[in-house]
Amino acid sequence: MAQTAKRIGICVFSGTGNTLKCAKALEAALTERGISVKLHEIADGTETASERDLVICYPIYGFNMPRVMKPFCRNLTGGGNVWFLKTSGEPLRLNDNSSAEMIRILQKKGYAIKGEFHYIMPYNIVFRHTDALASLMLETAEKRISDAAKRIADGEETSIAAPLSAKLVSALCRVEHWFYPRNGRLFRVDPKKCVRCLKCVKNCPTKNITFEDGRFRFGKNCIGCVRCSFNCQTDAIKIGMIDFMRVNGPYDFTRDPGSARLGRYCKKSYERYFADKRD
Ligand SMILES: Cc1cc2nc3c(=O)[nH]c(=O)nc-3n(C[C@H](O)[C@H](O)[C@H](O)COP(=O)(O)O)c2cc1C
Predict the structure, then answer these.
(1) Is any atom of ligand 1 closer than 6 Å to the C-beta of 240?
(2) Distance CA 250, CA 252 (A)
(3) Any residues with CB less than 8 A from the CB of 227 and at least 6 apart, and which?
């Protein structure tokens, strides 16, 4: 019989805030159900959480998890129940295998994998969604998160199934864990645009950016989260080989979700997602 959880740790890595918004909505929904929740923010993966039951939240990068999730999972010792909450920019099934590496690590440590919840949030790379669509994404996620909180509170299992195509694509794309630290060394700051606010230095989760003797230096610990370039107020940071996919500036999530229109890109998948009819 399903058990009711009493104390839960929500562990979240978020590059540009989308996943953190979802994690905070889940924290509020679980708290409303009388569950004691502690939210742990993951930065470079050296953190840990002492609660037995956990919800691990992360954004999908290249059909996989961000690299920091691996050391984070290796640090865990509680051996209780785990759910995943993940966000991504597109609702393709190719994203369905993204938790696989964490599942392998956690199962070896005796954790029971109970399921995962996947929400679509606006792209922080590739191209910009409109603000209205971003608002619709957040509104949709928040509604579904309250249902997720009930299922987690009841200890209910949800399925994690990935088609073979997702397994193959995520295995191939795991090369990005090798790529981002190298690509990070190619990041550059345009001195004509930069206003020396040093937000990028202060906010980098892996402390990979330094500013010394009037020069920015990018080290070898970049995880590709794009927090630096996304939040740069003058759009001064170029992100190496993936610069052509750079998206700059936060979304305005206060727009009317009712005015959201879908573009042509993956239209059918987005329609299925918003109608909650994912296959
Ligand atoms: C390096 C990188 C790779 C990404 N790869 C994918 C992907 O494979 N599939 C996808 O749907 N979205 C992808 N995205 C989009 C993010 O998953 C999405 O915008 C997410 O909500 C960002 O969450 P955050 O704001 O918490 O960092 C990628 C984003 C980045 C920065």
Answers:
(1) no
(2) 7
(3) 15, 16, 200, 203, 204, 205
Average pLDDT, the chain: 96
Question: Ligand 1 pocket, 184 CB below 6 A?
Answer: no
63 lines ligand 1 (CB under 6 A): yes
Domains of the chain: 7-171 (3.40.50.360), 176-245 (3.30.70.20)
CA distance 226 to 164: 29
Ligand 1 in contact with 89 (CB < 6 A)?
A: yes
What's the mean pLDDT in 152-170?
A: 93
C-alpha 30/C-alpha 42 separation (Å) is 20
What's the mean pLDDT in 116-144? 97
Nearest CA to ligand 1 atom 30: 61
pLDDT-derived band of residue 277, with 50, 70 and 90 as boundaries?
A: confident
Q: Which of 61, 119, 179, 228 to mutate to test the pocket of ligand 1 (most atoms within 8 A of CB)?
A: 61
Pocket test for ligand 1, best of 123, 203, 242, 243 (most atoms within 8 A of CB): 123
pLDDT tens digit sequence for 83-106: 999 999 999 999 999 999 999 999
DSSP 246: B
Q: Which of the four pLDDT bands, split at 50, 70 and 90, describes residue 279?
A: low
E strands within the chain? 7-12, 36-41, 53-59, 81-88, 112-120, 187-189, 209-212, 215-218, 237-239
Percent of the chain with pLDDT over 70: 98
